[in-house]
Amino acid sequence: MSLYSSAVKKPITTVLVYVAIAILGLFSLTRLPIDLYPDIEQNAIMVITSYPGASAADIETNVSRPLENVLNSVSDLKHITSESKENISIISLEFEYGIDIEVATNDVRDKLDMVTTMLPDEVENPMIFKFGMDDIPILILSVTADQSFQALYKILDDKVVNPINRISGVGSVSISGVPEREIQVYCDPYKLEAYNMSIETIAAIIGQENRNTPAGVMDIGSNTYSLRVQGEFTEARQMEDIVIGSVDGKNIYLRDVARVEDRTEERAQETYNNGIVGGMIVVQKQSGGNSVAISNEVIEKLPEIQKDLPSDVKIGIIANTSDNIVNTIDSLEETIAVTFVLVILVVLFFLGRWRATFIIALTIPVSLVGAFIYLLASGNSLNIISLSSLSIAIGMVVDDAIVVLENVTTHIERGSRPKQAAVFATNEVAISVIASTLTMLAVFLPLTMITGMAGVMFKQLGWMVSIIMIVSTACALSLTPMLCSRMLRQNPKRGKIQSAVFRPIEKFLDALDRGYGTMLDWCARHRWAVVGLAVLVFSGSMALSPLVKTEFFPTNDNARVSIDIKMPIGTRMELAKELASRINDRFVEDYPEIIEISYTVGQADADNTYASLSDNGSHIIKFNIRLTSVEERERGLTYICDLMRYDLANYPEIVTYQVMAGGGMGGMGGQSSVDVEIYGYDFAQTDAVAASLRERLSGLESCSEVNISRDEYIPEYHVEFDREKLAMNGLNLGTASTYLRNRINGATASYYREEGEEYDIKVRYAPQFRTSIEDIENIVIYNSLGQGIKLRELGEVVERMTPPTIERKDRERVITVSAVVAQGYALSDLVAASSDILEGMDMPSGISYEIGGSYEDQQDTFGDLIILMALIIVLVFIVMAAQFESLMDPFVIMFSIPFAFTGVVLGLVITGTPLGVMAMIGLIMLMGIVVKNGIVLIDYTRLCRERGMGIIRAVTTAGRSRLRPVLMTTLTTVLGMVPMAAGTGEGSEMWRSMGMTVAWGLSVSTLITLVIVPVVYSIFEGGKIRRKRRRSLKRIAAAAE
Amino acid sequence: MKAVLITCNQAYYEEVVAIMDGLAIRGYTYWDQVRGRGSKSGEPRFGSHAWPEMNIAIISVVDDGSVDGFLDELKKLDSQREALGLRAFVLPVEKAV
After folding, report:
1. How far apart are alpha carbons A715 and A142 in whole angstroms?
2. Could you say which of A416, A946, A947 has the minimum Cβ distance to residue B84?
3. Are A826 and A914 a contacting pair, CB within 8 Å?
């Protein structure tokens, strides 16, 4: 018994099976995590090796190069880049997408084991780090405080960080921009010298005085007591009364030579939120956590946390990645709802019957909900890709049901009872329904096999649509016939309103059928003229194709901007702070779109992981800006960024600035850039090339900003000790440099304990005694005999330039010049312009260049996709050839494919949209969608031929009878794409180009297919008949002889 | 005794059986999925790509007296929906076991 006859016979079972699917699907939906993108597997490993005391060049020769040479042989490696800076070498290995990162890590570890023995002795063991999407902070909170600022670190640590940390899924929470408490012992060097004391002695005395010692246990009478000395300071001021020595029988107290301050650490980043000093709390999630759920939970907890805080401490939100995710998903859900309504309207328009429309519409939710089960079972999430797959699929899932319903209706109209009609009519079209689903699978299943970046993205799309198509076909072959048998009536009666609405529509459709039939008749008689015209249209559209711009991914308007500003190296933090506050005020005034603006200045503390991962220094200012959501503002993100760049260019004190649209989250969605990599060993030469390239690129209109990856030489003071003089005074370099460090950086004497927390007690020169080179030269160093020697007698203080970080890529020194694409231009514009510039430049010998960045990714991905498209066309041909058991018919149908390109080119040129990966995917989907119309037409034409009609009559009859189903399925698909193509919500940039490609390609191709396919068919079929006739004539002639 | 051979569209099966039940005709033999073509008009039933529909055949041996009534009913059924097609032929039954 076939599927459809059992479905019709067992309506309860059938309904309940689909109810079960719906329940499971909805259950899965509630369990699905929400994210922006599908899980993108990590494909990068960092190897960090430290070699204390080595310069950048030493690190490069002794650490980075040997490691690179060995690591280069790890399999599936795409690029190997390294940064060699003072003390440390960072090697990043970028692998092909889709590899097993665990295997790669083991490979890397093995290789490292081989080479570590060959490295210099002082080199510490290389550490392996994996950095992925999960390490991007999900939430950045701002903290402002007034009176409590001094104690802010402890308050935040106790009352904010700890509660947040307890939320499950939260990975790490770090505080930045808030200085930690520190007890400072500021000594006066002259007084120290007078009393013959040193920082070291004071530090040692403080260490000895600040002690709690358990002295043991003693028995007194019948009891046992513990004995203890409680010497620890309970207040910082107590330290001032420590006796540090005696002169002439008088005690010298610490207060005589130093002042004790209970304050914060000296060098720290300072963060200002909306102009008020405060701090930032950065929340990262554990790998695999649900960003939206975690950040929601944190935000829910904030009011509770706020209650425990002093009244002047306020917590705000600077960046919440989940906002963007939720908004994007919301706007996609809206798109899906609009699509659903549109599709139903189209079906109603063509069928003119409520019941029939209901039957068709019901297949949509059932098939879509089925896909959620797959998502949950495969551990995926609701994200841009999975939801846009749903939106794509809505227009296509109804196709099968429409075919079935249409045939059932025909049977009923001819007199069959609905129950029998449902079975027999479904039986008749089952094969072609399955075949058309197979052509769709021929498109979408290969999508699951793409490699590289696009593979990660589109694997899910491929599976989702394939599964939805399969469910919809199953639905069309069981649920639809069952519902038809129950709901359709033999002589449906129409109400007055219904007829008033639908009669004109029917008249219009009838006229359309007739008109189309007449046109086909004319075309079939003027075949070559039509073919000539079609060739003209196709070649004309191809002539437009150079106007199509290309890009990788569109810039996503997530309402975030981050800016890095660099002042001349060595600029004091106070100056940077002053500039930052000026820029802050100006931005707030000029950009009413800003909701939250925060900036950070200064050197990050070494134990702040988040801050120390990025560039920091006293001359660097970092801005983090949140704008109103895209729907609420007129100016686009890239436009605002360009304006900001223009503003920043007017500050003469700024050396370089970098404005990152999208908050520099990297990967997809950020602003695209052209990275020119200049390879060459000689620093001076490559610097010169980079500088001149930068100058030329900045002149381009299509370029809004140019950044050079290599920093300038950094000025530093070096103290060069004379080893002979040191030896003569009984000193060595180690002792002398420790003395220097203790006076400037400070010696940690001991820890001050309060309420379970420990704070450093730092002993050093008071700030006013370390402001000039003389102060350094006057430092007194004591030898083992207790003799004090001035530093200037042991060596000299000189100014030196330290070479910057040495970057290497694929084992060659590299300097990257990256140019950001300006508003209104596409990646391809800038690539073309920069290639022209590069060709016009005189490269010194030994220097080569390559264009990387988004362009390289784009080229890789496009290459993959074009191969895939060829594969898909072949597969689609095979499926059709098998269905028709003919090579000619599928070949005729294939004539609709070129016109899909025509439509896409037209659409892209007219709307000025660049061709990106999403549009490419749209183009690939078109390969399967456009042939469906051809299949319907040719299938019926063949049927007419088999029924004995002449070519022209067969073509026109088939055309007239199939026009409505073709228009209907096409309109459902096209209108299904329109909400995507016209979307303006947050994140809609991402799928807009895909929707547009499909809508344009399918519309144009359908219009042309409706004419060209019947015409080409009649040419081929006519040729076949002529050949047959000639052969039989020959045979007759031969027989006659 | 007469044998009535009915060939008709698949969709008629249940209705034909209902008619026989109404006339208290109990015995019949039924072939599912048979192919054929009418002598004058109507679409062929070949179950092929060009003519996808199929027929059924029912043979029922009835008393001579019931034949006319049976044929009348069948005629009525056919005239309601001519596109489906139903034909009945009466054959003599010479012997039976």
Report:
1. 34
2. A416
3. yes
Among chain B residues, the shortest Cα distance to A884 is held by B49
Distance from CA of B30 to the nearest CA of A (A): 17
A298, A302, A304, A310: CA torsion to nearest 10: 140
Find the CB nearest A421 among B11, B50, B82: B11
Give pLDDT tens digits for A814-858: 888 888 888 778 888 888 888 888 888 888 888 888 887 778 878
Tokens 């134990």, residue? A607
CA distances from A496 to A100, A348, A499, A501, A933 (A): 66, 17, 5, 9, 35
Write down the ipTM of this complex: 0.83
Residue with tokens 């909900």: A369
The domain spans of chain B are: 2-92
pLDDT > 70: what percent of chain A?
A: 96
What is the residue type of A1010?
L
Please tell me which residue of chain A has the smallest CA distance to B50: A943
In this predicted model, which residue has the larger pLDDT, A798 or A287? A798
| Contact state of A424 with B84 under an 8 Å Cβ cutoff | no
Instruction: Give Cα separations from A975 to A391, A571, A921, A1002 (angstroms).
Output: 11, 59, 18, 11
How far is Cα A21 from Cα A28, in angstroms, rounded to an integer?
A: 10
- For B2-92, CATH gives 3.30.70.120
pLDDT at A497 over 90: no
Best CA proximity match to A676, nearest among A551, A829, A808, A818: A818
Question: Helix, strand, coil: what percent of chain A each, to 5?
Answer: 55, 20, 20
- pLDDT tens-digit series, residues A519-557: 999 998 999 999 999 999 999 999 988 888 888 777 777
Nearest 5°: the CA angle A45, A48, A49 is 145
pLDDT value of residue A663: 61
Give the CA distances from residue B97 to residues B26, B93, B94, in Å, rounded to whole numbers and listed in that order.
17, 11, 11
Q: For residue A47, which of A125, A136, A134, A132 has the smallest C-alpha distance?
A: A125
> CA B19 to CA B29: how far, in whole Å?
15
Residues in A touching B48 (Cβ below 8 Å): 946
* Chain B touched by A942 (CB under 8 Å): yes
Question: Which tens digit of pLDDT belongs to each residue from A220-275?
Answer: 989 999 998 888 888 888 888 888 888 888 888 888 888 888 877 776 677 788 77
Asked if the model's pLDDT at residue A617 lies above 80, the reply is: no
